[in-house]
Amino acid sequence: MLVLGIETTCDETAAAVVERHDDGRAAILSNMVLSQIAEHAAFGGVVPEIAARAHVEALDLIIAAAMAEAGRDFAALDGVAVAAGPGLIGGVIVGLITAKAIALVHEKPLIAVNHLEAHALTARLTDGTPFPYCLFLASGGHTQIVAVRGVGDYVRLGTTRDDAIGEAFDKTAKLLGLGYPGGQRVEQEAARGDPCRFILPRPMLGRQDADFSFSGLKTALRLEAEKIAPLTDRDVADLCASFQLAVVETVVDRLRRGLKVFRQRFGAPSALVAAGGVAANQAIRDALLNLASQDQVALVVPPPSLCTDNAAMIAWAGAERLAHGLCDALDTSPRARWPLDQVGKPLHTDAGTAGVSPAIACPPAGRAGGRDARGPGEPADSMSPNPVPSVVA
Ligand code: KG4
Ligand code: ZN
Question: How far is CA 329 from CA 103, 169, 197, 284, 381, in A?
């Protein structure tokens, strides 16, 4: 099954072609990512209007490049997958309209993929990880522990009560004058800093639930920085190292709890899986490795280039959905907000069995009867005026 994937939900314009074999193995035939860092750097964060315009300018060329590198033409595709949300709505619209046009012209099924679902399924693209597994989703807009039980079957075990983990990295970077994008810069500075110089809080440590909170940590860091301002290079490095250690220790504690909750509710997970841009952080990857070995669970962390936003994960999620007969009609709406537990599920075969329906040949996009993968009870138009956080309004 050959699927083109398109990603435009934030500040990366990306297209990829992925092949899913019948036995579930995957091959990434091309994976093009054009970052908009230069366009947004002067503003210290992503400017939604600029992002949408940049997607318009670049997307056609990126798709053409992805198809050329894959050495296939549109006629060979089995589907066109696009991130239809959640994300900055202008960019999502650009990607979705483009995908609809390709699907319509070439008479291919359209698969409207939830961006978070794509992060959640990346471990199956890279490692063929079997269900169920315990996912740590750590990105710019989300921090969640999720039981991934099947395609479209996600149970949230923990989430952040305030800032997302990537947002905390980005705000720390901004506060310390490290610019945008923040996560990588904070990690670089932390590598040469003293993590014990500043005593910062470890939010939510030891709590019974599996939730996160990062806004108190961010405030504590700001207060420490204000006490010693003006900051030297050494101060900045030490603040970054102290912040990163606090984050790492919090993540380990929360995941230990999340794994316990997972086992109580669903039995043993096949693996602990990390996904999302923050999973590119080496200190977090090292800590997860330790945790997994202590907890005697396999660890799957995709390579950094597949943790940060990319279109291979969108194509793969599209292929997984298509393999279950899930595709979407051409009137599918873009969605600024789209919780992971509201994505459409494959049909259950019989009562009480979480099995999936046999694959249904989706009709080409634009033809009547394309199955809509909206969750039960979801309104046809669930666009929200709220953009994801951590952007410059
Ligand atoms: O998954 P992603 O690429 O986009 C979203 O869906 O949000 O994640 C972006 C987030 C940003 O907050 C960025 O600062 C963070 O991931 N990030 C990192 C690192 N690389 C990216 N955070 C910490 N360390 C990194 N090396
Ligand atoms: Zn993402």
Answer: 10, 38, 56, 40, 13
